[in-house]
Amino acid sequence: MALVLTEEQSMLRDSARALISDKAPVSHLRHLRDSKDPIGFSKEFWHSFAEMGFAGLLVPEEFGGSGLGYVEAGVVMEEIGRTLMPSPFLATSVVAASALNRGGNAAQKSEYLPKIASGSLLATLAIDEGAKHRPLQTSLQAVRAGNGFKLSGAKALVVDGHVADLLIVAARTAGSAGEREWLTLFLVDPKAKGVAIERTIMVDAHNSARIEFANVEVNADSVLGEIDQGSALLDGVLDIGRGAVASEMVGLSDEVFHRTVEYLKSRKQFGKLIGEFQALQHRAAELYVDIEITRAAVMKALQALDADVAKATSAVAVAKARAGTTATRAVQEGVQMHGGMGMTDQFDIGFFMKRARVCEELFGDANYHTEQLARARGY
Amino acid sequence: MSETESAELERFRNETRAWLEANCPPEMRKPATSDADVFWGGRNAKFSSEPQRIWFERMRDKGWTVPDWPKEYGGGGLSAAEHKVLRAEMARIGARPPLSSFGIWMLGPALLKYGNDAQKKEHLPKIAAGEIRWCQGYSEPNAGSDLASLQTRAESDGDDFIINGQKIWTSYANYADWIFCLVRTDPTAKKHDGISFILFDMTSKGVSTKPILLISGYSPFCETFFDNVRVPKSHVVGTVNRGWDVAKYLLQHERAMISGMGERGVGRPLGQIAADSVGTDGQGRLDDAMLRGQIARFDVDEAALAACAERAVDLAKAGQAHPAFSSAMKYYGTELNKRRYEILMSAGGVDALEWESERSKQGARPRAWLRTKANSIEGGTSEVMLGIVAKRILDLPGA
């Protein structure tokens, strides 16, 4: 398959871009932050997003969605990255929808997927526990109790955790931290007894929560996928999330880059446009090359996910690792080349730096994915 | 793509796979181990092995030394999609190119775009059939990165030009049959405007070459001298004094070629090569954590670059490519290849330092390492490439 967007995908990009840049430019994020918005995103805008078919983009048509693929999800994520729009799209429409669609039984799918597609249900995956993304280190315990399980433990960096209607919780049903076996995914009602949710205000002003589970009772129907054998499902869902975040990082990097190049063409010092200085020209050119290479790697990963999620692992590791290093470079060059202005809160560029840092940690940073590639290649 | 088209393409894939399986000798399914193992064609060409001859002749007969050139010029007449399939199928079995040639990579595309009918009919089939080996007369002692300041003169004399001057870094000029050359036909015009692109036989009276010994101990480049060389004016490609257009177009192809020199995805993974000499720990990991990290980062970047190279081809097909993008690829590809060889030297340790021994195949690794240092100089330095990206793609101000 050609590594360029099809005509339909380009149209999707154009309509997403038009909608997002019009209704949710960076000032939208700034407003949500400054007003300490209790929800952390615009419900009204989320409904128009759903009406456009974006909320159910990955949901099969039989459940009221658009039945599109990961390349299309990446197209939307990239546009979200350009304006840093806080949106349930990542947690609900990409990660949770994929988990339910790939792991859910008929009853679970027909209960939740149509609600995701209509924009009426928010869901999220609760995976990380420690400071770093280490899925195999999951130690939240799920102990059998009667017909169901009791969950005990804590999760961090749960995106949209304080507004979600449904939590998808990775737990250990046996064995010990570090083992690939004995992981199970559970669907948990955030209002269930024993669930304590703390909204964590993060550096990027996007939604995140810490959630504690104290003997939370769930019944057997709340298992998503196979008991004890949840790793494969989890790997796939995480890779889908990684591809999506990598796309957001491409959009973010590209936007910072464009703003920076425009600045180089307008700011004068020493009687010259600073873009005339070769020291800056070469750094801008290097960054351009980095972004283009990363864009291709991310597109490759999304196509690999569309072809077969289970075989996309290495391509996704390359994409997320590259997206991390590229975005980190882009935002640092962005701030540096904007000089003192880049350090001010009034100027938008800092928002990009903050969001890039969170995206880097989401679903594993560049070091994590580089290590995964080394292991996959057997050295 | 319509269903009929994809079905056709699938049929082509199956036929190609079967044909390659039946016709590519096993010896030709691994990378060449030395330059002598690469077939360059030409009047004095010799095959280094029987499988090399068989592979070349079979591919030539199908037109697959130049799969996407028109059939009338000895090409395979493949569409862009079919060509991509052929490349993928060749890569699948590790089949090496049957013929390496500056005629294929550089002159051919320029002739297809700028050559007249007679020139195309005269030269393209001989390139496709490996009969004529070409070299490139671009750089001069005082015209390197600033190529357009070249001074080799071509003075009008009736139906001919009389050429005088010197070229340098002419790859394999001492083996080449013909040269494509940039000469100054109008010394009074601005530097980009007085240049012509001309072809002539290296056996012409007044042409001489002198190999240059490099830090690798090899002499892949020559100094090339022209002393009153008489060349018919009909050998000018494109318009007289508009040679810079042809030169630039050709440079894009050269840069695309050099960016691909890293042999991406060919041969054993770097991590495994390193494990041979460095060893592994109890968990099977390379027993040098820092080197392992360097290799892993290299692998990430190499895989990403491979995706970008694929995308560059697809963008070109879709008519969405920026003409200067090959400069971006050239910059990154050559810098990455240098990184690869730094890693290989570090991984090889003492073993990679031997220069003259059977054990080291006459210092193959250190010589290859030193050779890669030219990658970011030849065909335009990394700094020139970044300048082109800054000015032509990013539209940054200044000269």
From TrEMBL, chain B:
Residues 135-229 form the Acyl-CoA oxidase/dehydrogenase middle domain. Keywords: FAD, Flavoprotein, Oxidoreductase. The keyword Flavoprotein applies. Residues 241-394 form the Acyl-CoA dehydrogenase/oxidase C-terminal domain. This is Acyl-CoA dehydrogenase. Belongs to the acyl-CoA dehydrogenase family. Pfam families: Acyl-CoA_dh_1, Acyl-CoA_dh_M, Acyl-CoA_dh_N. Gene3D superfamilies: Acyl-CoA dehydrogenase/oxidase, N-terminal domain, Butyryl-CoA Dehydrogenase, subunit A, domain 2, Butyryl-CoA Dehydrogenase, subunit A, domain 3. Residues 7-131 form the Acyl-CoA dehydrogenase/oxidase N-terminal domain. It comes from the Bacteria. One of its GO terms (molecular function) is flavin adenine dinucleotide binding.
